[in-house]
Specification:
Layout (H helix, E strand, L loop, with lengths): L2 H14 L12 E7 L8 E7 L4 E5 L5 E3 L1 E2 L2 E2 L4 E9 L26 H4 L1 E5 L5 E7 L6
Parallel strand pairs: 1-9
Antiparallel strand pairs: 1-4, 2-3, 2-7, 5-6, 7-8
Length: about 140
């Protein structure tokens, strides 16, 4: 799959994220994405997708922390979610693709798909929704 196709697919999927009524109550969801050696994963996209069709997302900070948003608002609707973590490979925003502007793959690619990530979390209104995602590196495929 080409990087341009993958980016277009990611943009299309993100337009579906956060669907729901504007009156639905959102609950804070935060966390951190780390490799098993405890190194933080910076610049990854964390996608939450519920079976009810709700979506939420975040980008990880340099220390691997994230705060989920739904439709541009902080938080997520309550319920069970499948989670994918997508590592963005283009790091300089260059319009044309060349090896010089690609970061090395850090995460195992299985985390980029809901079907293979194995990550499931529940957002509950009556508790802190803080999740630490400890993931395999690309070398651990």
């Amino acid at each position: 799959m080409s990087n341009r196709f993958f980016l277009a697919l990611l943009i299309a999927a993100s337009s579906l994220a956060g669907c729901g009524s504007s009156s639905d109550k959102l609950y804070p969801v935060t966390g951190r994405v780390l490799l098993k050696d405890r190194k933080p994963v910076a610049g990854a996209i964390v996608e939450f997708s519920s079976l009810a069709g709700h979506g939420a997302r975040a980008r990880t900070n340099p220390d691997g922390t994230f705060t989920i948003t739904s439709g541009g608002k902080p938080g997520a609707l309550p319920g069970a979610y499948r989670v994918a973590v997508i590592q963005m490979l283009v790091i300089d925003g260059a319009g044309s693709h060349s090896k010089a502007h690609h970061a090395p793959l850090v995460l195992n690619p299985k985390y980029a798909r809901f079907e293979s990530s194995g990550l499931e979390y529940e957002v509950k209104p009556d508790r802190d929704n803080v999740y630490e995602l400890i993931l395999d590196s690309a070398a651990q495929r």
